[in-house]
Specification:
The structure holds two protein chains of two kinds.
Chain A: H1 3-6, H2 11-30, H3 33-37, E1 41-43, E2 47-48, H4 49-71, H5 78-89, H6 92-102, H7 114-120, H8 126-149, H9 152-170, H10 172-183, H11 185-191, E3 192-193, E4 196-197, H12 199-215, H13 218-227, H14 230-282, H15 291-305, H16 317-336, H17 344-363, H18 368-371, E5 384-385, E6 388-389, H19 393-415, H20 418-428, H21 430-435, H22 440-466, H23 476-489, H24 494-510, H25 518-532, H26 541-556
Helix pairs in contact in A: 2-4, 2-5, 2-6, 4-5, 4-8, 5-8, 6-7, 9-12, 10-11, 10-14, 14-19, 14-22, 14-23, 14-24, 15-16, 15-22, 16-22, 19-22, 20-22, 23-24
Chain B: E1 4-13, E2 16-26, E3 31-36, H1 42-50, E4 57-62, E5 65-66, H2 72-76, E6 80-83, H3 95-102, H4 109-122, H5 124-128, H6 139-151, E7 157-161, H7 169-184, E8 188-193, H8 196-202, E9 205-210, E10 213-219, H9 220-225, H10 227-233
Parallel strand pairs in B: 3-8, 3-9, 6-7, 7-8
Antiparallel strand pairs in B: 1-2, 1-4, 4-5, 9-10
Helix pairs in contact in B: 3-6
Classes of the chains: A mainly alpha, B alpha/beta.
Bound molecules: adenosine-5'-triphosphate (ATP) and magnesium ion.
The site of magnesium ion has 4 residues of chain B, from helix 1.
Chain lengths: 567, 237
């Protein structure tokens, strides 16, 4: 056991976790998050997102406390310490209740008001409500702690079931429009009353998904598939791919215009993510100016196709697209040269500066005659195919779907190619890679060039959908978004790009009403990810190895003769 | 014609004059050792040979050809492999994948297979653990892997940078036996070591490096008897 943990593992640990969890909720309440979130009902009219947020502190505290005690082999204490954590997590929010009751119209803390008190006290009044809050927090602490005592199978099933219910509750409006096509209006009206999940439906869905993940295919199916002959496995994979494709093709017609537009934006980010994943995930070159290539693609498309623009629209979308990609690739190489000898943080700073330079240039009067300066490029035509205008998000979705598939295919082929091995070796150790015979200049430039090409393609499609582009669409936040999504998905992993884009780009689009907290949630998610699941949601194999190498060592190498370790 | 020849090589790190006129030769089939204290410039010498660092004056000549115009990756292709100080294995890859990277420049499948069998014969430990992630190997196994990976390039000249570093005495002996075996199979070896006694017991000839200059060179047996070497590097008074 590790020394730092051994000395004081007693009630103080539990108390600290509880107070910390509660303080975070105090903060959420004070900045108005709890009130804003409470607008969304989740299940029935009695459970809303704000309430879920306000008990999260207690659950998380109980969970972390429970895990700490379980790891220290103090199983007997898990529940009682979880309860302590939970109870204490209920204390800091009391400050909100007191302040909100005494000075409900404070001009300094505008968010601490009667409405917040009402939410936190379950409408029971300050006194009874405060007690209720502490009791509920204690209970949540117990639940959080009890969770760690469950077997892995049950834990997974529970998370699965909870996710289903919560997501359906959260997105009940969107889910309703989608399901209406399949179940009919009356069924949907029953399922989603008051823009939230019907409590009875919630229970049924919970039970079903829980049972399904407990007894369903899951892992058993996976091992069964692995035991099949490789011929059969290949066939099965093909079937999955075809089914996936059919689903992807049918998707916009199932979800309607609004969600198709969301899917379109997610797709744009998937394309960019695939490209940046090559640069950062495969080749290990931290590029923070990736948006520049997106801008090159968008402006090239704009300038070449807009009738009111510099060229008067000499080309159509399909002819301009390859040129946009080419421009991106070219600038990828041009920008690769000066940073060839830079590593790690230096590279990050220089690319960051580069991204900003491009944005400033786009604003500048100097280039304004060509790309419009602050006015941007206007009136970029929508692409059409055989005379058919791709004017709806549903059609444009197909365009990014195709783009994403091509990008994913290229990325997958590259990863398994000789070039992929070059990138991998370079990422691990440049000097060693060079003494293996790898041409670093070529390897780096190829990574920058290909990554830039994907981004430019995405930018070109973006421009032709938006029709008007302005310099402020190409800020640093885009680069950060793309980098975050590949990290959240799992650096180096292709499915991870899609998962990351869905979470970091798709979800915020659906949760527009909470836009003011978007960056806060973003930061929180990244921090929690790095602590709990640093390899990402859908990690790539070798990355998993890296982060869990130490555990492997502990597990398998008990028998290995340990020779005086060098470094 | 010597296999490798360094003529009056001067190398710098910025303003630091790390190599101050090194001249040495390594003949075909030899084991030559380069000994010296910390910071003497041993690693730097190897880096100038592999092309990772270009000398400011002087020349590095491999089998009669001046290496000045070539970059590091092109020099590997000419038959020079290095086992870097601290091993530099790819920690996330498996043993087999690491070895595979060593043969990166080769296309002849049967030749690669032959090299792989040779490596597994020299280091049966690696064969047992071919699926293990390299980062979880013990220090000794990592050294074996680094040597195996260098051999996968089928080099004619093998550069070893302190292979004994951090290893227990038994293992050092085993590693040095293997170096001798590799040499007997026809690979020329330039061995950089601080463990002068061990290095001199398997080498044919040796050079003593001090603050960027060669101060002594002789056949290994004589160096072992040399008073100054004994005092400075063998810990004898
Ligand atoms: N990258 C570098 N930048 C600046 N100075 C360096 C660099 N690498 C080495 N040096 C300096 O060059 C000199 C020779 O270093 P070198 O690594 O060749 O020594 P060495 O003989 O291999 O030592 P050791 O036995 O400790 O490995 C030292 O003074 C060292 O500080
Ligand atoms: Mg050294």
């Amino acid at each position: 056991m590790n020394l730092t943990q051994e000395h004081t593992l007693d009630w103080r640990t539990a108390a600290r976790n509880g107070l910390l969890g509660g303080t975070i909720i105090l903060y959420f309440g004070a900045i108005g998050m709890v009130s804003t979130f409470s607008v969304r009902n989740m299940v029935g009219t009695f459970l809303n997102l704000g309430q879920i947020l306000s008990i999260m502190g207690a659950i998380a505290a109980g969970l972390i406390t429970g895990r700490t005690f379980l790891k220290a082999d103090q199983r007997a204490k898990v529940i009682q310490m979880g309860a302590l954590s939970g109870l204490l997590a209920g204390l800091p929010p009391l400050i909100l209740i007191i302040m909100g009751t005494l000075v409900p119209n404070s001009t300094m803390f505008v968010n601490i008001n009667a409405e917040l008190v009402e939410i936190l006290t379950f409408g029971l009044g300050a006194l009874v409500g405060s007690l209720a809050l502490i009791v509920v927090s204690g209970l949540m602490g117990v639940l959080g702690a009890a969770f760690v005592l469950l077997g892995e199978k049950y834990r997974k099933a529970l998370i699965n079931a909870l996710l289903w219910v919560l997501l359906l509750g959260l997105f009940s409006e969107n889910a309703g429009t989608v399901l209406q096509k399949f179940l009919g209006t009356s069924a949907v009206r029953w399922l989603f009353q008051n823009k939230s999940l019907n409590p009875i439906a919630a229970i049924i869905i919970f039970a079903l998904t829980f049972a399904f993940s407990l007894f369903g295919v899951g892992n058993k199916g996976k091992t069964k598939i692995q035991s099949l002959p490789s011929e059969k496995q290949k066939q099965l994979r093909l079937i999955y791919i075809v089914l996936g494709l059919v689903f992807a093709l049918a998707l916009p017609w199932m979800v309607g215009t609004f969600l198709s537009q969301v899917l379109f934006i997610v797709g744009l980010y998937v394309m960019m993510g695939m490209g940046l994943n090559i640069v950062v995930g495969f080749a290990g070159l931290l590029d923070l100016g990736y948006v520049a290539f997106f801008a090159f693609g968008a402006y090239t498309m704009g300038v070449l196709t807009s009738p009111g623009g510099f060229t008067g629209g000499i080309l159509n979308f399909w002819l301009a697209l390859p040129i946009a990609i080419l421009v991106g690739v070219t600038f990828g190489i041009i920008l690769g040269f000066p940073v060839l000898n830079m590593r790690g943080d230096y590279l990050a700073i220089v690319t960051l500066g580069f991204g900003e330079i491009i944005r400033v240039l786009a604003y500048s009067n100097w280039l304004a005659p060509i790309i419009g300066g602050a006015q941007g490029v206007l009136g970029i035509p929508t692409p059409s195919l055989f005379g058919f205008r791709l004017g709806k998000p549903e059609y444009m979705y197909y365009l990014v779907l195709l783009g994403s598939l091509v990008a994913a295919f290229i990325a997958a082929r590259l990863r398994d190619s000789r070039l992929g091995r070059q990138w991998m070796a370079m990422r691990e150790d440049e000097d060693v890679a060079e003494t293996m015979g790898i041409n670093l200049v070529q390897t780096k430039l190829l990574a920058f060039a290909i990554g830039a090409g994907f981004s430019a393609a995405s930018g070109a499609i973006f421009a032709s959908r938006l029709q008007n582009i302005f310099p402020n669409s190409f800020g640093i936040l885009v680069s950060i978004n793309v980098l975050s999504l590949i990290i959240v998905g799992g650096l180096g992993s292709l499915p991870g790009v899609v998962v990351g884009a869905a979470i970091l780009v798709g979800m915020p689009e659906l949760l527009r009403e909470f836009a003011e907290y978007r960056l806060l949630m973003y930061g929180l998610l990244l921090i929690v990810m790095m602590l709990a699941k640093p390899e990402g949601f859908w990690p790539e194999e070798t990355r998993k190895r890296e982060l869990h190498a130490k555990e492997d060592w502990d597990n398998n190498d008990a028998d290995a003769e340990v020779v005086g370790a060098a470094d | 014609m010597p296999m490798l020849e360094l003529n009056n090589v001067h190398a710098y790190y910025g303003h630091i004059h790390a190599l101050q006129g090194i001249s040495l030769t390594v003949d075909q089939g030899e084991i030559v050792t380069l000994i010296g204290a910390n910071g003497a410039g041993k690693t730097t010498t190897l880096r100038t040979i592999t092309g990772l660092l270009k000398p400011r004056h002087g020349s590095v000549i491999l089998e009669g050809e001046d290496l000045a115009p070539y970059k590091a990756h092109q020099i590997v292709a000419r038959g020079v492999s290095m086992v870097p100080e601290g091993r530099g294995i790819f920690a996330k890859l498996t043993v087999a994948e690491n070895l595979d990277m060593g043969a990166y420049l080769r296309n002849d499948k049967s030749g690669i297979q032959e090299s792989l069998e040779r490596v597994y014969r020299l280091f049966p430990r690696l064969k047992e653990r071919h699926n293990q992630v390299a980062g979880t190997l013990s220090g000794g196994e990592q050294q074996m892997l680094a040597m195996g990976r260098a051999l996968m390039a089928h080099p004619r000249l093998l550069l070893l940078d302190e292979p004994s570093m951090g290893l227990a005495p038994v293992l050092v002996e085993a590693i040095f036996d293997t170096i001798q075996e590799i040499n007997q199979q026809g690979t020329t070896v330039l061995l950089v070591e601080q463990n002068a006694l061990m290095a001199l017991s398997i080498a044919h000839r040796g050079y003593v490096l001090q603050t960027g200059q060669i101060v002594l060179s002789d056949v290994a047996a004589n160096l072992k008897e040399n008073e100054m070497v004994q005092k400075a590097y063998l810990g004898m008074e």
